[in-house]
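Hallway conversation turned thread

IA: we were arguing at lunch whether anyone had actually written out Putative RNA polymerase, sigma-24 subunit, ECF subfamily end to end. Turns out nobody had. So, for the record, here is the sequence (184 residues) and right after it the structure tokens. Reply here if something looks off.
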Amino acid sequence: MYKEIERLLLLSKRGNKEAKETLLLKLNPLIISSIRRYYNRIDQYDDLIQEGYETILQAIENYDPNRGVKFLGYVKAMLRYGYLEKHREKQFLSLNEPLDEGEFIDLLEGNEEEPTDIIIKREEIKILLKSLNCLTERQRQVVVEYYINRMSIDEIADKLGISYRTVVNTKTQGLNKLRKWIVK
């Protein structure tokens, strides 16, 4: 597959439109997986896919094989940074924006919490505390340090005397376990 992509890239750089179209179609799954991973907005999939195609076309033009990077790796990085940057963009909403229920400003309420919201939060906290018991000791420690004590991955690794990658893997496994336990 890599040789096919390299061949299509070479033809695309020479101006072969069919090769560009074929290359875009072959890289479509990469675009979709990048969207899901870095900017998963189902309501904008068509636009995001088009932006992915534009990114790949730009990558075809800018790619330099002499830099020692494979084209596929270059495209993955370009897509990742493009979607992450899009994720960082702030979308501003006017307070007078018309909505189905009136204007946005009409939906804003005071800072007081409703009694039902307080009860729901308490129940959610109880469920979360119970679900922490399904984790191993290390998973619980990593999750608590990261989300409750706001420690960085590096700080947790230093504190526990384990590698950065082990902390990341432990946190991921713990979160997956929590998700499964809570969804039950």
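OS: looked through it. The beta strands are 98-99, 102-103.
IA: good, adding that to the notes. The longest helix spans residues 164-183.
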